[in-house]
Amino acid sequence: MVDLNAILPYVIGAVVGAIVTGLIAWAIEHHKIERQFRLDIIKNRLEVFGKLSNDYILLASALHEFQEIASSTTVPNERKFYYICKFFFYYSRISEEAGGFEFENRLSEEVMTFLVADIINVLNEFNYESFSDMIDLVSSDDNKMIRFNKFKVNLNKKLFSEFENKIILNQQKHNELIQYCRWLEKIMIFEINRAFRFYYNESPTFELDERLVNYLIDNNLQKYTERLKLSNKSGVVRFFHLKGNYY
């Protein structure tokens, strides 16, 4: 006669062992699936970034050109207007292609989206049709950027006059526009170079000013200041502070 009390612990042990083995196998498989899913997301985002990187650079270039001449009294205001139109042209392409900015850091996307919103807010006296007209003014029939000489020929005098009177000649709005354009350009170039750091084998640094820090704090984006400040720190320090902020 079989003694059930004697073999019961072995039976229980075998069942528990099977359950534990099954759970371990499930956990390993789940981890593989999760890791692959994460890698697929990263790959997708990198592909989108690579596709849009040229438009990012051209958008940053338009912002830089505007800042360089914005306060000049010798440069025609038509050129200042041209670069703002270029900004809207490239931003519309980015929005159409990806729905907005795609970078390796989520907070950087939020910061840039806030800055674009503030640039648009400075121009709050212009409606949606005006922004569409600005884009059209610098677009060829095949949706490519046109040069300044052609832009001048086709210039919408009424729209330009509004920009000149409401923005260029309005000291407060003019200064705000310059500031937001400067910050957006600097952050975009920083994040572009961060994304290409392995290609160039060089990590970019960022010169953070107090006004930008205050702007980020006011918009509940103060955590992003850590990323900018740490760009001047050693690689080890950056690794431990920034790990987990990607994708």
Task: Give the overall pLDDT as a whole number.
Answer: 82
Low-pLDDT stretches are 36-44, 236-242
Query: What's the SSE pattern?
Result: HHHHHHHHHHH
Query: What is the CA-CA span between the terminal residues?
Result: 64 Å
Please state the overall shape, judged from the principal axes of the Cα atoms: elongated
Percent range for β-strand residues: under 5%
How can the largest sheet be summarized?
A: none
Task: Please give the count of helices.
Answer: 11
Radius of gyration: 27 Å
Q: Helicity range of the residues?
A: over 70%
The gist of it:
The protein is built from eleven helices and no strands. It has 247 residues and is mainly alpha-helical.
Question: Overview of this structure, please?
Answer:
The protein has 247 residues and is mainly α. The chain has one domain. 76% of the residues lie in helices and 0% in strands. The protein is built from eleven helices and no strands. It has helices at residues 4-70, 77-98, 106-122, 128-137, 148-153, 157-168, 171-195, 197-200, 210-218, 223-230, 235-242. Helix 2 crosses helix 4 (128-137). The radius of gyration is 27 Å and the shape is elongated. The protein starts with a helix and ends in a 5-residue tail after the last helix. 22% of the residues are buried. Mean pLDDT is 82; it is low at 36-44 and 236-242.
